[in-house]
Amino acid sequence: MAVKAKPKPKTKKKEAKPRSSWRGMLRFGLVVFPVEAFNAHARGREPLAFHQLHASCHSRIHYQKVCPIHGAVSNDEIVSGYEYSPGKYVEIEPEELDKLRTEKERSLTIDTFIQPAEVDPIYFDGRMYFLAPAAAAAKDPRRPRQCDG
User: What is the residue-averaged pLDDT of the chain?
Assistant: First the structure.
């Protein structure tokens, strides 16, 4: 005898705040300001989305971050580490990784603007990003200044 499972009540998901994939400086000649890059792909607007399902019961397959000793862990419990010998790690702080980045890796320099038709389509790989100001000062570039004199 088969037992039907009760359908779960539908709950409205909160719209996730977009996370930047890169932070750095944007340079226009002598003008420099902090920016963040966000993926331009609009989630939830795809016409068709597929999910992985368990073949026998059609339950959705989930991927969890799991420690073999402690089980499932949250993102705030995860750190970066370098394996210096098998099974031995040294923990690396995010600030230490930032210090390793060169000035070129921390900034975008715009030399010139061109027409889209001038770019060979081979360079379009499907990844598009929006740049947004990363600091309050960068959000208002025409902020009034006080003149002395």
Answer: 77
* Residue owning tokens 């060169």: 102
Enumerate residues 6+ apart whose C-beta is below 8 A from 74: 65
Q: Is 35 exposed, middle or buried (0-12, 13-18, 19+ CB in 10 A)?
A: buried
Residue 87 in contact with residue 77, Cβ under 8 Å?
A: no
Q: What is the pLDDT of residue 95?
A: 85
For residue 91, give every residue at least 6 positions away whose Cβ sits within 8 Å of its Cβ, in sequence order, or none. 79, 80, 81
User: How confident is the model over 31-70, as pLDDT tens digits?
Assistant: 888 888 888 766 555 556 778 888 999 888 888 899 999 9
Token pair for residue 15? 């719209």
Stretch among 2-11, 75-84, 105-114 having the lowest mean pLDDT: 2-11
DSSP annotation string for 33-86: EEEEEEE---TT--S-----B-TTT-PBP----EETTTEE--GGG--EEEEEET
Q: Under DSSP, is residue 28 helix (H, G, I), strand (E, B) or coil?
A: strand
CA distance 61 to 65: 14
Higher-confidence position of 12 and 24: 24
